[in-house]
Design a protein that fits this description.
The protein is built from ten helices and twelve strands. By secondary structure, it is α/β, with parallel strands linked by helices. The protein has a domain of 78 residues. A six-stranded mixed β-sheet has the order 8-9-10-5-11-12, sandwiched between helices.
Length: 297
């Protein structure tokens, strides 16, 4: 019997994706402006021999990989592979048992979540985490607050800096809602938005923190094919503003169609790394996803 092969997926058709005619500044650049180098060799994030244990359970086992500036990087694997745990270690939710994590050359191990966010790493979550009684605009403004410098007293007495930052944050939040395609819902309470709109709102809120690296945890979960096509186009636009993207996703067609490089985890260990084509044809990856022994013939 011949070795199983994962078929090459065609990229989703961007023609169905929602156009954005008024670009929003993200990552210090305007949408549609190419990054300095799509394949920049500068290392942005390093995960260095990270192990994470919960009692007797080894959730991550000596995992190492690096992200280069300006790329879309995929982190994939079967359920329980350790993908979200790895995200949590990078964003301050968990502290590694051993190993290091460096962002722009500086260790972020032991830093608090808000410190990591201010340092340039933003993320979304598997499950939507919005403020349900706040409007879409207010939710995004919460993200913009991450870089406000107004003191508690300044905010209490509404000084000039407070008003300046409030106005700037509101303008930027509206631009980001337009960027993700839901600006017409700006005044709507977030719990009244559709599931797809809530996912987009989470991305807008993450972008409001002005990240250098955006980590998306299964952003296409629950999407129909048309919504996935729009998401794929949105991820590319985000990268084109100069923001590096780290993507966890179960939809292999989406991952293969949008990423530059991929790391595959299984049971907390890295089993493959490479381009989408290299990963797709890797026997260990085929075995992990299809349950076929690597030596099957």
């Amino acid at each position: 019997m011949s070795e199983p092969h994962i078929e090459t997926p065609q990229e989703m058709d961007d023609a169905n994706a929602r156009p954005v005619d008024r670009p929003a500044p993200t990552g210090g650049k305007m949408a549609g402006t190419p990054p300095e180098s799509q394949h920049d060799s500068e290392v942005l994030l390093e995960v260095d021999h990270v192990t994470l244990r919960f009692g007797g359970v080894v959730a991550l086992n000596d995992v190492s990989f690096s992200l280069r500036k300006g790329e879309i990087f995929g982190l994939i694997g079967p359920n329980g592979a350790g993908k979200t745990t790895c995200f949590n270690a990078m964003t301050g939710v968990y502290r590694p048992t051993s190993g290091g994590i460096r962002f722009q050359g500086q260790s972020i191990v032991g830093k608090k979540k808000h410190e990591i966010t201010r340092g340039g790493i933003a993320r979304t979550f598997q499950n939507v985490r919005l403020f349900p009684e706040m409007t879409a605009l207010e939710n995004v403004m919460v993200g913009a607050d991450a870089h406000h410098k107004t003191s508690v007293l300044g905010a209490l007495f509404r000084g000039p800096r407070h008003w300046r930052e409030e106005r700037t944050g509101r303008e930027r939040s509206l631009q980001l809602l337009r960027f993700v395609g839901i600006d017409k819902r700006a005044g709507e309470v977030s719990r009244n938005l559709s599931y797809g709109e809530q996912r987009r709102l989470e991305i807008a809120r993450a972008l409001a923190t002005n990240p250098t690296l955006l980590c998306l945890d299964e952003p296409a979960a629950g999407f129909n094919p048309a919504e996935k096509a729009e998401l794929l186009a949105l991820i590319r636009r985000i990268r084109d503003t100069g923001v590096t993207v780290l993507l966890i996703e179960h939809d292999m067609r989406l991952v293969m169609g949008v990423t530059d490089r991929i790391v595959v985890l299984e049971f907390g260990k890295k089993i493959a790394e490479g381009t989408p084509a290299e990963v797709r044809d890797n026997p260990a990856v085929i075995a992990a996803y299809l349950g076929v022994p690597t030596d099957a013939a």
